[in-house]
Amino acid sequence: MAMSPEQPSAPRRSRIALWLVLLLLLALGGYAGWHQWRAREQAVVNSTQQQVDALSERLNAMRTEQRAQARRLQQADSLNRVLRDELDGITQRAALLETSVERLADPDRHGAQALRLDETEMLLTIGSQRLQIAGDLDGARRAYALAAGVLDGIDDPAYLSLRQTLLQERTALDALGADPRVRAIAQLDAYTQTVTAPAGREERARDERAPWWQRAFGNLLQVQPTDRAVAVQAADRAAALAGLQLEISLARAAAERRDTAGYRDALRRADTWLQRLAPDSAARTQQRAQLQALAALPLSLSVPTLGSTLQQLRQLRAR
């Protein structure tokens, strides 16, 4: 008779089922706990991230405010420097005003006398500058005359030598006569009228005095020495005359600006054109001598004593 396997008893099956249920409950509880722990951990992470973001925003705001504060500090520093410079300027002006008041209040220097000395110094400065910079001789004379009139109103005997120096300087200015530049230009204009105008008249007169065959065939054939540099043809003479007039105009312009080198170079070139206009003769020699005399004329003013009165006045006021 065959034997069947032993069947588990009912209590044992119930225990196994109970254990299975317990294991299932434990698994469910562990999963629930793990899910809850993950949710809590995620909430903590989110909260931490929010705090970090908030701190970053606050840090950015603080940096922006710091930069704004730095800009305001720079502006305040710049303003302080400007105010300091203005304060230094005001202090300097106050010191100058105080010095001026002390000078005017000095019993040894009357206020009216100080003003007259200031006016005299200004007029002397204007006169010397007009003569040195602009070459205005008449303007310098008028300025020195006004300075002499102002200086005569000071009755202090300490300035007697200053009046004598001013008188010597005015005498030197009056001794100059006309401005050398004006004199040179006038003589140059007169020379131009005596040289260029007769050249055309001589050419026309020579053409009228020429014989009929020379007037008829002069443009076709003309005999002259080969070593002669004088222009004979009408076109050559016109070109030479135009060159002479141009160089004289250049010399006049150089005289206007007191350019001695340019003035003499232009007259030297004008002498070359003059030799082309006429053959060697006593008249041409005289014209060339006049041209050389014009080139030797001075263009600048020379006053050795210029500025001596101004220098002496400044020395007296310094003492």
Automatic annotation (TrEMBL):
Its BP terms in the Gene Ontology are:
methylation
**Key words, A-Z:** Coiled coil, Methyltransferase, Transferase
Instruction: Locate the coiled-coil region(s) and give their ranges.
Output: 45-76
The main enzyme category here is: transferase
| Enzyme Commission number | 2.1.1.107
* Cited Pfam families: HemX
Tell me which domain of life the UniProt entry assigns to the organism this sequence originates from: Bacteria
* Database matches in InterPro entries: HemX (IPR007470)
- Listed GO molecular functions? uroporphyrin-III C-methyltransferase activity
Q: What is this protein called?
A: Uroporphyrin-3 C-methyltransferase
Q: Please tell me the species this chain comes from.
A: Agrilutibacter niabensis
